[in-house]
Amino acid sequence: MTDATDTNPLLARHAEALDLFGDRVHTVRDDQWDASTPCTDWTVRDLVNHLVSEQLWVPAMVRDGATVEAIGDAFNGDVLGSDPAASWDTSARASRDAFTEPGALERTVHLSYGDTSASFYCAQMVSDLAVHAWDLSRAIGADERLPEDLLKFTVREVTPYAADLAKTGLFAAPVEPPPGADVQTKLLCLLGREP
Known about the structure:
Structural class: mainly alpha
CATH class: Mainly Alpha
């Protein structure tokens, strides 16, 4: 049977991003959960909690057509429990299942800033997963190199609205990349990271 990722490049990148982040989550040692990350206000646990929470939103938004208001604070606070890796696995599977349902990417989702296509939402999730995989890798001393296809996808996705991200207060201001910087370094600098 043909998997949806065999024919849809967006779903292929989504699977790759989930796998990359999940690999890093399963690499976190017990003594690293309180370590700092490039996201200055977040520990490793906070960062993973953020990504688990984001994945938990996907079925409600994509499958059920729920609004932000209807979901409310259902996924606020600690969603990791006593086994963060298992919580990641469960949330990633739920997100993946919702995005790969037949017709899912053609649906409309009701985000905080307005209605948009589920395919745009999925692309944003891919980029967020990729960048936070780098954050997590940096925090735990894992390989920081993003896979080439995922890196290219993220650059294409983020570049059109990168200048507005710092204005949200959720991203640091862009930093000047060093001379001769590669594509990954330029992307990270654009998103306020110090590679």
